[in-house]
Specification:
Strand content: over 45%
Distance between the termini: 39 Å
Structural class: mainly beta
Shape: elongated
Number of helices: 0
Largest sheet: 4 strands, antiparallel
Oligomer: single chain
Order of helices and strands: EEEEEEEEEEE
Helix content: under 10%
Number of domains: 1
Number of strands: 11
């Protein structure tokens, strides 16, 4: 949940996004192309990941909720989390990566082998 926007996972491949204020109430279902492993939400950005890719959506409203895909990054992630509106962290089998919204790696932290 973020401000007037809310997001709820509705099944393995659907995210329900809603907006409500004192005069407007909108609801939109976004269907994904794969089984959703998880999602995160910050301001007007929604990030979700499947076993094969990470997608970032921008949400806006006019007379309805509009959902625009900002990027689709082909990368396997165990977990994802927004750091800010412009970057996010992914956990992989070998460490952490901080990426921009377009998928450019900004910083990497590798786990040492035991």
């Amino acid at each position: 949940m973020n401000g007037n926007y809310k997001a709820i996972l509705k099944g393995t491949d659907k995210i329900e996004i809603s907006y409500e204020d004192s005069k407007d109430k909108f609801l939109q279902i976004h269907t994904t192309s794969g089984h959703i492993k998880g999602f995160d939400f910050i301001a007007d950005k929604l990030l979700y990941w499947t076993s094969k890719k990470i997608e970032i959506l921008e949400i806006s409203k006019s007379s309805q909720i509009n959902i625009n895909q900002i990027s689709s990054i082909e990368q396997k992630a165990l977990r994802c989390l927004f750091v800010s509106k412009d970057s996010f962290i992914i956990t992989t089998d070998y460490g952490f990566n901080m990426l921009s919204q377009t998928g450019q790696v900004k910083q990497t932290l590798v786990f040492p082998e035991s």
